[in-house]
Structure formats: structure tokens, C-alpha cells
User: Which sequence fits this backbone?
């Protein structure tokens, strides 16, 4: 585990507003950001239950799939990924995320999108147990009570100076942990990467306070959607700060926060902490798609 640090963003904002980014992306070279936090106590629990196999769910470009594969290998588990859609069944080599996961020992089971929707059904889980044996189930995106417990460790004592803590939202585990460990004077703002209002209910399952709000205006059309404006923003931000942002989660959140500063959403003198939840492994796959669409690629180094 590498030390995480807070990096000041040296960009002048109006009304004496300051931005700082917590570099959770640097916590581990392959299990970065919130994936490290979410898996920490789940791996402890799997070992306590004497399980040898981790089974989880995800899409073909999933940060979670890549993280479980590497963490499982590192901790001595077999890993199985139930992948949404079967279009890449014979094209694993063409997908950087799946290729990485396979190289780290993950076995795949590709299922149709219709079947994938049954992932929480007991009958579907039982079929998987019949096929793969007695596994420890890690939910899609890694979110459960143990994941939230891990995410409650993101904020440190030195973070008490911040009025706002902002993060991207996928399945709701990371923001739930932040909500639970935030101080009374702090507001947690979540920026969903998906369309729809269902996340409020998901977060309320785990969140113990009401110090939060979701801002749903910056998903750029939905999960995995990206356009030229976002690409140019992420690349310009990297040029100014040397902080690479992923286009699925953190890039959209940072775009949203800076846009809201320009719209006077935040009071004067606000100190805002951005949580970088990692996900940089997905950039290689996204750049393949961008080249196909003849769009600029995302920069991650000079």
C-alpha cells in the first residue's frame, strides 16, 4: 500500500475557493482508489470463511473486474468474473481490462445481458455455485457493508479543514463511506456516472447521516459515455496539474465541480476536497474506442 496524499490544485478560482484532490489513485499500482478500500475487508472476510474462490460481476471495461483479479492473485484466491454480454467471448485479447484480468488468473463466464440482470437472484447464484463450487461473492462494483467500512477510512484527521467532499458515484459504496465518516460541518457531494435516480435509495441502505446530496447533471449521457468537451477538459486538467483523470468517474466529477464553481454553487472561501477514486486502467480501452471514432485520445503522461 502506497501513501495517499492531498494535492492542491493550483488553479485560481473566484471567491477565494480552493480545490484539493486526494490521490487515492496512488494507493496501489493495480488495485487503486476505492477498489482497494472496498476489497480490503471483503478479502479479510473471505479468508475468515476459509474460501479459496472469489466470484464477482462486471462489464468488459470494469475497474472492479481488474482489481478483483489482481487482488485475488496477490492474496492467493482463485477468481471468477461473470461478464455482462458475450460479444467479447473470443476477443479477450482486444480488451485491455479483460486481458489484464485473465493474465492475473481470472476465469471468465460470459452471460447475456438478460441473464446478467438476474445477478442478485438466489436461483442464479445457486447455479453458479453448482458450476464453480463454494465461492465468496463480491457484489458488482464491490459495494456491501464491508466495502463501506473500507471507504469510511478514506477521510483522515487532516481533512477536517474541508467544507465539501466530492466524489464520483457508481454503486454508492464510496459515497456511503464518506458520508459516515464525515464531520458535522462537512457536506458530501456525489456525482453519479449513471443516469437515473435509483442511487438515492441504494445509498440510504448504508449511509447513516443526511449530510449529502447527489448532483446528477454531469453523467454526459450515461455510464461510459464521453464527448469531445470532456476529453478536452481531462487533457487540459492534466496539462495544468499533472493529475490524470479517468473519463468514466473522476473526470466527470471534477468537470462538474469546476463547472459549479463557475455557476456560484459554492459559498465564498469554500475549501473543496475531491476524491480521486482511481480507474485509470480503463483509459487504455477508452482510447481504443476514441481512435475508432477519430476523437482525440486521453493523456496520462507527458
Assistant:
Amino acid at each position: 500500500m502506497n501513501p495517499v496524499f492531498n494535492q492542491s490544485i493550483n488553479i485560481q478560482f473566484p471567491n477565494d475557493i480552493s480545490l484539493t484532490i486526494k490521490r487515492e489513485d496512488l494507493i496501489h499500482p493495480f488495485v487503486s482508489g476505492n477498489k482497494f478500500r472496498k476489497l480490503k475487508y471483503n478479502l479479510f472476510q473471505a479468508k475468515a470463511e476459509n474460501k479459496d474462490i472469489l466470484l464477482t460481476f462486471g462489464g468488459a471495461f470494469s475497474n472492479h473486474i481488474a482489481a478483483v483479479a489482481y487482488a485475488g492473485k496477490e492474496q492467493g484466491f482463485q477468481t471468477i468474473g461473470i461478464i455482462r454480454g458475450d460479444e467479447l467471448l473470443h476477443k479477450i485479447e482486444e480488451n485491455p481490462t479483460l486481458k489484464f484480468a485473465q493474465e492475473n488468473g481470472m476465469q471468465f463466464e460470459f452471460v447475456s445481458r438478460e441473464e446478467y440482470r438476474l445477478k442478485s437472484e438466489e436461483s442464479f447464484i445457486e447455479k453458479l455455485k453448482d458450476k464453480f463450487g463454494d465461492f465468496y461473492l463480491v457484489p458488482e462494483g464491490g459495494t456491501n457493508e464491508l466495502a463501506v467500512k473500507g471507504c469510511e477510512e478514506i477521510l483522515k484527521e487532516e481533512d477536517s479543514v474541508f467544507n465539501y467532499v466530492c466524489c464520483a458515484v457508481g454503486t454508492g459504496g464510496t459515497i456511503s463511506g464518506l458520508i459516515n465518516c464525515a464531520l458535522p460541518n462537512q457536506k458530501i457531494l456525489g456525482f453519479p456516472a449513471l443516469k437515473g435516480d435509483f442511487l438515492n435509495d441504494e445509498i440510504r441502505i448504508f449511509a447513516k447521516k443526511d449530510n449529502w446530496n447527489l448532483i446528477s447533471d454531469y453523467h454526459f449521457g450515461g455510464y461510459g459515455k464521453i464527448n469531445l468537451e470532456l476529453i478536452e477538459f481531462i487533457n487540459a486538467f492534466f496539462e495544468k496539474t499533472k493529475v490524470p483523470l479517468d473519463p468514466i468517474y473522476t473526470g466527470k466529477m471534477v468537470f462538474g465541480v469546476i463547472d459549479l464553481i463557475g455557476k456560484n454553487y459554492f459559498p465564498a472561501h469554500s475549501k473543496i476536497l475531491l476524491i480521486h477514486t482511481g480507474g485509470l486502467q480503463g483509459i487504455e480501452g477508452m482510447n481504443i474506442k476514441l481512435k475508432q471514432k477519430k476523437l482525440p485520445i486521453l493523456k496520462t503522461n507527458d
Notes: The longest helix spans residues 34-48. The radius of gyration is 19 Å.
